[in-house]
Structures are given as structure tokens and as C-alpha cells.
Amino acid sequence: MAIMQISHLTKQYKNSSKLAVDDISFDVKEGEVFGFLGPNGAGKSTTIKCITGILPITEGSISICGHSIVDDPIQAKLNIGFVPDNHQMYEQLTAREYINFMADIYHVGKEDRKIRADKMLELFDLAKVVDDQISTFSHGMKQKICVIGALVHNPKLWILDEPLTGLDPKSSFELKQLMKEHCKEGNSVFFSSHMLEVVEKVCDRISIINNGKLVMTGDLDEIKAKSSDSSLEEIFLSITGVKEEENDFAINDKADNEFKDVFGDEQSK
Amino acid sequence: MNNLSNFKTLLAFNMRYYLIPRFSNKKDKKKYIITMCVLAAVLLIPVVSLLVGLYALIVTTQNVEATRDLLSSLFVISQIITLFFGISTYLQVMYFSNDRAILATLPVKTSDIFITKLLTATAMEMLTSLILVLPSTIVTAIALAQIGYSLPVWYYVLIPVAVITLPLLVILLISILSFPIMKLITFFKKHQTVGAIVVVFLIVGFLMAIYIPLYSNLPMGNTNVDIDPETATEEDIPSALSPAMEGAGNMGRMAIHTRALAAAMFGENVGVNLLIYLGITFGALAIGVALSLLLFKSTMQSLDEGGSNAKTNVVHEYTQSNVTKALIMREIKVVTKDIGKMINVLMSYVMGPAIVFIMLFIMQMNSKGAEGSEIDAISAFCKGFTAGYAIMMIGGSNVGVSAGISLEGKSFAIMKTLPISARDYIKTKLMVYDIGGAISSLLCMIIALFFASFNIVDIIGYILVVPLTIVSLNAFSLVRDLKKPKLEWNVIREVTKNNASTLIPLVATLPMMILSIVLPIVTSIFIPNAYVASAITWGCLLIAAVIYYFSLRFGVLNKVEKLFNEVEC
Ligand SMILES: Nc1ncnc2c1ncn2[C@@H]1O[C@H](COP(=O)(O)OP(=O)(O)OP(=O)(O)O)[C@@H](O)[C@H]1O
Ligand SMILES: [Mg+2]
Fold first, then answer.
1. CB contact under 8 A, A90 and B414
2. Nearest by CB to A54, which of B308, B309, B416?
3. Which residue pairs from A10-16 have beta carbons closer than 8 angstroms and sit at least 24 positions apart in sequence?
4. With contact defined as beta carbons under 8 Å apart, do A157 and A1 qualify?
5. Does residue B101 surpass a pLDDT of 70?
6. Is residue B316 part of a domain?
7. pLDDT computed for residue B450 by the predictor
8. Which residue's CA is minimally distant from atom 25 of ligand 1?
9. Cα of B120 vs its chain's centroid, Å
10. Cα dist. B435→B352, B353, B432 in Å?
11. Residue-level pLDDT at A114
């Protein structure tokens, strides 16, 4: 069964003539981790903002657990837990006040919220600072609080935008574990990323978006089989238009990965 | 060389950043300019009438010496007004702007940052001084020419000097004041709510300390002159006004520095007087700058540490509440725990009652010895003033609602992802400010009860009219802001200033404000029975308030869902 169905989603920002997202369709099924890949400015965040109700949709439809985000937003949103890329939060609150607020809004009982939040606070080493104001937290700490806030109601669909940037190796590992566990319980995870190794490790299926258009969707193995390139990185680079010679160079230097993601496209032109 | 160009770049950056309003598009700009024009036009009425009064006073009393002292008084008043408007601008530019963190990382000297910021704040204060000093000095010159007194050239030469140098002394006062304020802020950093309240009260208290002695010196409603209006002739007018002129000059005679400036402008001992004035001004400026620099350096790091690390021993637990209560608590916490937001919101709730208190206290002081019909007239004015002022201050200039969405900033996106309806969000937000506004406006009335004779009709009328108007204005302002919120900002000033959304509600209050001030006076003149007069006044005002309600609040919540969904962030 599909937890999320996107069909013919198109988004044009009010102050722009370009389509940020251009007629994309795909499903996220129950129990899977779904990776959403694409270079900078491809439209990943825009798509995610449409799914979570932050942006009004220009055309097409999105439904979560059968509820349309446009016609039945409250029911749809009740099934989502969202971790944004910029970790926007109410920084004036303490971590506990923030978790409490999220739990109240999603109708989570007192016992449930205590069990879930305390477990994750322990996991992320945040139990000691839970009564401090969020504005005093580091980048990574804020992100972890975001994660806890997003999971406190055990959502059917957990959406994360660039979740792994800025996390230390341990936290990054814990987060990946959490994503897998969340799916084992019959829920789904949908996240965007440029970190290809991570995507290769945790995702059941992926979609690649470039310039607002969906380039391919499917099983990792399926995609690899279809394409002449052998690694996800090669596929990604050939789709997003890096020339052959540079492509070779990139394969030789895997550590360069992240750097490429940030600067690659612009610099190679 | 390199240093100098760095300095220039910094200065240009600061000036542009704070002095020139910026807009994301032409439409916003147009709207802002139109609103400013309307406001300016409305403000022009009292300013022009004051200038006409000044002119008439000089022409009728024909006393050059008293005019000189009056000019000195005007200078002092301009400095006080500059202080009034300057202090929050100064604190925001110097200490509460987020660019401090960025500037601190640049390869420029802290003292350069300080001086550019100080110059920017001073330039902003010179604007206030220009608006106040220029017209009044020109009107004085015209009036003196009218009575055949020719001013020396010095007068005109010194006008620009006055405009530029008068705000400089204010810097000293502001610097001195900012010490306790900043100390308190750092001290209360852990208890931000208390801190903000203290800061607001400190400002209000300081202003009261200046205003009350000041105004009680002024000849408002001066009734000591024994002239029977029925037998008075034209010759009596100058002698009737002389005491007023004398009184107005009192303050000017006491203030050594402005007295010297005024004397120099009138050509008396120009050299010595100018020396006295400039000596005092620049001496004060030097002390002020030194104090400010000291404070600036000591806060450069500590202020940016931010946040409360207060570890209390209380064991915190999870608590559960329903959605409405959670939303209300969030609103209150988000505002009260952010010192910038808190000060802006409290200003309207505290300034309303404070100014009502000051104003009525002064009226009381000056109407000692008044009798009969005069008392009634003063009482009528007090009632109207209280209602009108409460409406303007609490309903018309509360950024908590007029920029209520914009103040959420980038975190507004979170609200859009939550499973709640826009209607509930707006409703709970309004609830907070409706209750705040109602309490603050009732406080205004309670204060007024001590000074003016409110009868039962007045009390009921006030309770019905003022909160209803404020509540209507709240809904109007908040939904207006939802139409096009300004969510990308770093410094709170970007939201509260240069924003048509915060001005339009003020314009919307004007009809109601004028009506509430004028009606009680008119009815008290024409209707002898106090109860009937009150009933008619409040009856009319209630009709106006109901019109406000139906045009500004009624059904407005039906629009919010669509507006909320359309915000792109
Ligand atoms: N508020 C906005 N107004 C207008 N255009 C926008 C806005 N936000 C994004 N865009 C445009 O939409 C396109 C997609 O941006 P989006 O943020 O979705 O990219 P992304 O895939 O998330 O990139 P990144 O990897 O850098 O996060 C870009 O061309 C961008 O310029
Ligand atoms: Mg993005």
C-alpha cells in the first residue's frame, strides 16, 4: 500500500517564472526508506515543502495515507513528522517545552510522549539539556530536537530534508538506525540528500530529480541494472551532467564526494 | 588607507541599512509611502497649530527677551523629544542588532564598528531634531520680523548648527541611561520576561521623571490671571498672555546650554555664548561617547552569548494540554522569552496606561483652582483622552498583532506543517492579544478614575467601547499582516519599522481616536446634564465601535485559511 502518492506535482513560486518542480509523480510504499536525490537547486526542498503543506501547490495532487494535503490538510499532516533542512524551531522554548508543544498538537498522551521522547533524548545524549532554551543549542543539537519533535507522535510518514548534514558520525549512525527502525514498525521514511553513500546504504528505493524534473525512480538494483554506469555516483553524475573526464576523476577520488556535491556543478563549468 | 576605506564601507553600510527603508517590491514601497503621507498629513495638524500658536504668542506679547527664552525652551524640548524617540533606536542599533555577530568576525576594529553605529544612531536623531528645530526657528524669525525686530545674521547661521549639535547632548543622556538598562538586560538574561518588563518600566519611569516636572512648569490652563472675559479688551490680551510666555521661558532660562545658544542666535555676546554652548555640548558628547564605548566593548562578546542557561533545581516533567491551550502557551512563551519582541509588545501595553497617567496627572496639577464649568471641561477632556489614547496606543500600535505573523520569522513554516487549521492558529493568537489589550485598556480607565469624574454611564460606556474597538483593530491588523508577512528578517527593526503593515492600523484608529476625544468635550459644552451628555457620547462611540467591529473583525476569520495557505516561506 502507498503511504504517499504524488501525482503530476508542479510548483511555480509566485515571484518566479520558472517551474521549480515540473510534473513529477511517484509513490512511497509502506515500510520503505525512500531517498530523494538531486543536485543543488533541483527542487528537492520545494517538493518536500509542498508535501508538508508549507507551500501551496500550483498543480497536481499529493495524498498522505489517503488524505489530500490540499483538501484534507489536517488529517494528512497528522500522519507526517517533518524535520526541515534549516532546523527552524521555536528557539525561545526549552527543548522540553518544544517536545510538549509538538505532542499536544499531535494529540499524544502524557505517557506515550514520555516514553518516546526520553528514549530518543537518551539515544542522542540530550537528556541533560532538555530543560535548556533551544537557542543555546548547537546546530546538531537543534537538529536532534527537531527529530524528536517529529517522531513524538510516531508518524506513518517521516520526512527529512537533508538530515545528515552537520551531524557527527555517532549521531549520523543513530539517525540512520532510527530511520530503519521506524520502517520496521510499518512506517515509511522519505528523505532528501546528496550523500550518495548514505543513500546507497539505507534506501530501499530512490528518485533522482534534476532541474525540477524526475529523472528516474526505482529500486537501487533496478536503476543500476538499467544504467550503463556501475555505481550510484556515476549514475548521479551522468544524469546531472558532468562531463566524462571529470567523471573519471570523481570516481578516483571518493573522498571528494561531499565537496563535489557542494561545489561540483558550478566549478566544473 | 586601508583602515579608512574599511571605516567608510562600514559607515555606508550602516547608514544604508538603518536609514533607508528597503522593500522587496514596488507595490510595498508605494503602500508604505502612501501610508507615511497620510500619517504625516494627520500629524501636520497639531504641528501647524503649535507653530501658529508660537507665532501668535510672539506677535501678541512683543517681548524679544521672552522670545529668546522661549527659543531656549524649544531647544530643550527638542532634546527631550529626541531622547524619547532616540533611546530605543539607539539601543537597537547599538546593542540589539544581529549584525553585531557578523561584524565581530570582520577584520575591522571594534571601535570602528562602534563609531559607525554611533554615527548612524546620531544621524537618525538629527532627523528628529531637524523636524523639530527648523520649523520653530523659522516661525520665530518670521514672528519677530512681524513685530519689527530684525534678527542678526548669526541667527540664521546658527540654525543649522543648532539642528546638528542639539542631539549631541542627548547622546550623553542616552549613554548614561543605557548603562543601567544594559546591565539589567545582561542580569535578567536568565529571566528574560522580568528583564523586559523592568526595561520598559525603567524607560517609562525615566520619561515620567522628566515629563512631570517639565509639564507642571508649563502654563497649560494657567488661570492665575484675573481677567474677566466679558469685559476684556484687545489691550488685555498681551498682558493675559505674558505670564504664559514667562512660564514657557522658565525652562529655557534654567537650561544653561540652550540659553547660551539662544542668546548667541540673538546676537548677544556671540563668542562667549557660543563657546559656552559648544563647550557643554562637546564636553557632554565626549563623556557620552566614552561611556558608550566602554559599554559597547564590554557587551560585544557577552551579548551574543544569548539564551538562558538557567538551571533550576526543579524536576521538569512532561505535561499535557489540549491544542488550543498549547497554541496559546506557545504564543505567550515565544513573545515573552524573546527580549526584542517582548519590549515591542510591552511598549504598547505599558505606554498606554503610563502616558494616560502622565497626561492626567499634568492636567490635574494645572487645573488646581479651577472651578465650575472648567472642571467639567477638563474632566470631559480626560475621559476622551483616556479612551482615544488607549485605542491608539493599544489597538493601533501593537506590533504583536500588526506584525504578528511577520514576527514569527522563518519559523512560520513550522506552523504550516502542523495539523491545525489556520483559523485556530489565528484565533488563539488573537485571544492572547485581545485579552492583553482589554486588560491594558481597562488599566487606563482605572488610572483615569483617580483624576477625572467618571459616572456610571462613562464606566459602562468605556468598558463596552474601548475593548471592542481594540479587539476589532487586532483582527484587522493581524489578518492584514497575514496577507503578506515579512518573514525573512534578522533584526526586529526590519519588521517593526519601514513596514506599511504596522502603520496602516495606526491610520485605521485615527477616526475613532479623534471621535473619542472630541465627542465628550462637545457634549459637555452643549448638554448640561452630565448623565445625558455621557449617554450621548458613549452611545455615539458605541455605534462607531460596532461599525469598526463589523467592518474590521466580523467574518474576517473566514478569509484566513486561504491567506495562510498562500504564504510562501
Ligand atoms: N522562495 C523561493 N522563491 C523563488 N524561487 C525559489 C524559492 N525557493 C527556491 N526557489 C527556486 O526553486 C528551485 C528549487 O529549489 P530547492 O530549494 O527546492 O532546491 P533543492 O533541491 O532543495 O536544493 P539544495 O540541495 O541546495 O537544498 C531553485 O531554482 C530555486 O532557485
Ligand atoms: Mg534543499
1. yes
2. B416
3. A10/A57, A10/A58, A10/A59, A10/A60, A11/A43, A11/A46, A11/A47, A11/A50, A11/A55, A11/A57, A11/A58, A12/A58, A13/A46, A13/B568, A14/B568
4. no
5. no
6. no
7. 84
8. A40
9. 20
10. 15, 15, 5
11. 93
Tell me: pLDDT of B537 over 80: yes
Interface of A with B in 221-250 (CB under 8 A): none
C-alpha B279: how far from its chain's center?
31
A133: phi then psi, degrees, rounded to nearest 5 = -70, 140
The reply to whether B409 and B299 lie within a common domain is no
Name the pLDDT band for B215 (thresholds 50, 70, 90).
Answer: low
Check pLDDT > 50 for residue A192. yes
Overall domain count for chain B: 2
User: What is each CA distance from B248 to A97, B58, B74, B254, B478, in whole angstroms?
Assistant: 56, 12, 9, 11, 43
pTM for this structure?
0.72
pLDDT above 60 for B367: yes
The protein residue whose alpha carbon is closest to atom 24 in ligand 1 is A40
Taking alpha carbons only, the member of A47, A131, A54 closest to residue A94 is A131
* CB nearest to B323's CB, from A75, A97, A105: A105
How many A from CA of B412 to the centre of ligand 1?
18
- Looking at the fold, whether B294 and B334 belong to one and the same domain comes out as no
Angstrom distance (rounded) from CA A100 to CA A145: 12
DSSP state of A56: -
Q: How far apart are CA B356 and CA B348, in angstroms?
A: 12
B162-180 pLDDT tens trace? 998 998 888 888 887 777 7
Encoded amino acid at A219, one letter? D
Instruction: Report the gap between the CA of B466 and the closest CA in chain A (Å).
Output: 32
Q: Which H, E and C letters describe B277-302, residue by residue?
A: HHHHHHHHHHHHHHHHHHHHHHHHHH
Residue/partner pairs of B39-46 with CB below 8 Å, 24 or more apart: B39/B503, B39/B506, B39/B507, B42/B507, B42/B510
**What average pLDDT score do residues B465-472 get?**
96
Mean confidence (pLDDT) of chain B: 81
Q: Is B560 inside any structural domain?
A: yes
Are B163 and B65 in a shared domain? yes
> What CATH number was assigned to the domain covering residues A1-79+155-170+184-262?
3.40.50.300
Residue B230 in domain:
no
Span B72-98, average pLDDT: 79
Which of A59-73, B66-80, B175-189, B524-538 has the largest mean confidence? A59-73
Residue B419 pLDDT class (50, 70, 90 cuts): very high
Q: Are B31 and B500 in contact (CB under 8 A)?
A: yes
- List the one residue out of A208, A180, A159 whose CA is nearest residue A3: A159
Q: What is the mean pLDDT of residues B451-459?
A: 88
Domain map of chain A by residue range? 1-79+155-170+184-262, 93-154
Same domain, B340 and B476: yes
- How far is the first Cα of chain B from the last one, in angstroms, to the nearest whole number? 43
Residues recorded for chain B:
569
Range of the domain at B508: 330-569
Both B350 and B295 in a single domain? no
Chain A residues 39-68 within an 8 A CB cutoff of chain B: 49, 52-56
Q: For residue A255, what is its C-alpha cell? A: 573522498
Shared-domain flag, residues B13 and B89:
yes
